[in-house]
Every structure is written in C-alpha cells, then in structure tokens.
Amino acid sequence: xxxxxxxQRLQAHAKTGATxxxxxxxxxxxxxxxxxxxLSYWLQxxxxxxxxxxxxxxxxxxxxxxxxxxAGITLxxxxxxxxxxxxxxxxxxxxxxxxxxxxxxxxxxxQAQTIDTQLSLQLYCQNGPSxxxxxxxxxxxxxxxxxxxxxxxxxxxxxxTVAAIDQVLPLTIACRHLxxxxxxxxxxxxxxxxxxxxxxxxxxxxxxxxxxxxxxSQLNLAQFWQxxxxxxxxxxxxxxxxxxxxxxxxxxGVLNASQFSFIAVGGAAVPAxxxxxxxxxxxxxxxxxxxSECGSVVTLNTPAANRPGTVGKALPGLTLHLxxxxxxxxxxxxxxxxxxxxxxxxxxxxxxxxxDDDGFITIYGRKSNLLITSFGRNISxxxxxxxxxxxxxxxxxxxxxxxYPGLVALLTPTAEASSMAIDEAIKQLxxxxxxxxxxxxxxxxxxPFSQENQQLTFxxxxxxxxxxxxxxxxxxAIFGG
Length: 481
Known about the structure:
This protein is an alpha/beta fold. The chain folds into 3 domains: 3-8 and 25-153, Rossmann fold; 155-367, ANL, N-terminal domain (Rossmann fold, 3-Layer(aba) Sandwich), CATH 3.40.50.12780; 370-478, GMP Synthetase, Chain A, domain 3. Helix 8 packs parallel to helix 9 (272-281).
C-alpha cells in the first residue's frame, strides 16, 4: 500500500453510502476526498512545511490530517491533554510555525490568519525558524520522567501498519468505528481511523465531552453508554479503563455485547479479570501492544489467533526478539527521534516479555521499573499491580520497594474502604504471589495520583520516581530507615 493506492481506495468507497461524521456534520467519502484535495491545494499555496494540529476529535481534525498527507506536509499532532507549557515546548521543539487549533486564543506570538477554505479550525502563525517537511508525521511519546520525544514517521511505515492490521483481521469484522481515543494518539489515528477509511467503514468522530470524557481520567458512564448505543458502534479502540467501562455497561444491562464485533485494548496492562469477565458475557475484547516508533501496533490478538493474557502475535513485516528478557523489534520503523541522527535498526522497547511456542507475546512490565529488594530479588511492580487492579477498596495501586526489604503498596482508598477491608484484600492478593513479591505494608496516598500533581504521565502511567520521592519519608519509616 502507498499514498496513491490509499486515496484511490477511498475514492472506490464513494458510492457505498458509508459516512464520516462528527457532532455537527456528516459527509460521504466523495465529499471527504473533494474537501481534502481542496485543503491540500490551499496548504501547498501557503508553502507550509510542518503543520501543527491542536484540537479535539472532529471531522476538521481528519480533514487536516489527510490534507497534510495528500500535500506532502509534515503533520505534528499536539495532544490536547498536554499542559499548555508542554504544548508550547512541543511546538518549539518541532519548529512548527503554522498551527490549526480549535482553541480561541494561543499564547503571545501566535497570530490568527485568515484562510479562504471552509474549516472549523483557526490557523495560527508565528515567526521563527521553520523546518523542512522531512516526515509524514512527528508524533510525541510520553515519558515517565523525561520530556516527550518526537518520533519521525514516514508515510510508508504508517501504510505498512494499516496493511498489516488489515491482513490479520477478517474483512467484514466491523462496519461502524467510533473514535473514542484522541486522534492525536497515533493508535487511534492509524489503527483506528486510517484502517477504517481503507476498509470503507462508517466513522464517527465525536468530541470528548459529547461522549462523557472529561480531561484524561474522568468519565460520565451514563453519557458514555448512551453514545455507544446511539452510534451503534461495533468497532472501538480503548484503554483498559474504557474497556472496563464498556464491560460494566454490558454487565448492568445497559449495553448489549452482541453490538460489538471488535474492541481493541492497549496502552497499559490489561487485568486478567477484565478479560475473563468480558469472555463470560461475550464481549469481543482483543488485547494488543504497540509502539509509536513502529507506526503504532506491533502485536495483536485476533479472532483467528487469540490467547487471552498475551498481547498477541507480531504483525506481518515485524520481527520480535528477546534479549535478557527485553522485547526487541526489527522491521520497518521510525526515521529516528527528532533531533537525532540515523534511526536504530532494532527498537529496544524497554518492556520485559516472553514468547511462547506459538509466537504469542506476554508483557510483564517495564525494564526500567524493575525493583531490586535489599535481599537481591528482582521484581516487576506491574506483576502485583495487575493482580490488584479493579478492587472495590482502592482506585489506584502502585508498588514500590527498590532497595527496601519488602514491597509497599501506595494506594488511593475508595470511599467505602476501611483499613480492615484493605488489609484483608491485600492478604488475598498476597496468596497469589510468592513470598518475595508479596505486599508487606500499604500507605494511603495523600491525594490521588494525577497529571496535575505530576504523578501521572499524560496517558495515565505512573511517574514512579516522582511518586516515590513524595512518599520517601513514610517508606523509610516503615523499614526503620
């Protein structure tokens, strides 16, 4: 698949009746292509090389995305859930001087520009150095401690990803994709929307607020379930938390599991309990694993090859290796990080993994998160954390213990939790773990981990070093330090 074939395929879908819509408008594939071509021509006339895009999900977001692809302009999606300083830092790092945004005003230095094309986004410009269009996209990854990195991706890597997913999924598995993840996240952009376009699916691109999403971690369940029902979505890409919300809707009778054909879940560890409960009610949840450096999806469970508890098999075109327990990926990948030289021939994922005889990959946790107790035991904190997920007595649960004699859980109690109930729940958790990996004590958090207190990354992963530093005195006190 290449760019020409991609747009030709979209043209072939023009007479199918499939639509692309958002909260305000709905258009067919023929109108989509016409508007993309018009915007592409206009962008080329402005001699834009790198184009930023800061907006919530909408039809306009997709039009800019496809127009930049059509025009050969490097698109730099700016996650709307980044803080203002992070967004400005990203734009400066990527040397972006033109930015489409749905925000009414940006920081000083950005000037609104009049455009003669119909688009519900404002174009802003600023003076300063500008870089050439040397990639299809520059997508920014999150880091638990470091600043986000800009991953340079050429269009062929992205099209290879679309083609590989298309190859392993049944052709008629789904026909209506609901976009609930931010399009600024590569997974939804490529594995969600570009794949759906290639297959000629109906696509709905609602704003986060319209489906009950507020910020990065607040969800109005009733509104979310109503949106899933209204749009008759049979295809979703979710995080474990959103997958759990869908499961809760099915378990409570608000949603019907038969509505869904394929729910891909990734971005974080998926608790075995969630997968087991989904299977019990017939909810088709398939776990996968991805890297921005490889164009999003790397491994995926599918209806034809599904092994719950694993993240599936490698997509065609990618080869996986294990070195000292770390998962390595080779194959067509990124052009390198922005500001660095040649791309690596092998991507070191930093994830601890295993591979069974059939090629299914299991991820155990981050190599950098490995805890070494004072007794010399190596423990991945994600192991007990995954077992502790979805408890009635805590909403957050992080394990620490590097350099200490035992493991301690930092947890955020729920309203109905008592100390006795938490003690009993941890006792039951410990029964599933060997003695060296059991929780010896727990500390209630002063406040929930959040992006605001810099204890979560933008995609809600623990910033472990920051959290441990905040509770260092209490940890030392437990072990007499």
